[in-house]
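Support request, please re-run this one:
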Amino acid sequence: MTRIPESASRVLELLAQAPDRIRTSTRAVSWEQLSRRSKDEPWSIYDILAHLRACTDVWGGKHIYVMIEKDGPVQRHVSPLSAEVSTVAGGRRTNTCS
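Re-run finished. Output below.
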């Protein structure tokens, strides 16, 4: 296995700590506050956290390591909200659906 640079190791460490940090910081927040949306801010705290969870489901695990270990990796993914399939290559997203 390729040696992971120290800066990438730190990012992985922070990602691993994120669920506990989110749980701790939202423990005392009411459902009303978590679900509040406004005209200026259409995403509630709950919406943002659900989005982060969906991203983890799609991108978690091996995808993070591939991005760290390879320059310009090409990875297929499926958006959890649609049937759109895209390819991410070198920081650019290209739609592979017709």
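Confidence is low (pLDDT under 50) at residues 82-98. The first strand starts at residue 74 and ends at 78.
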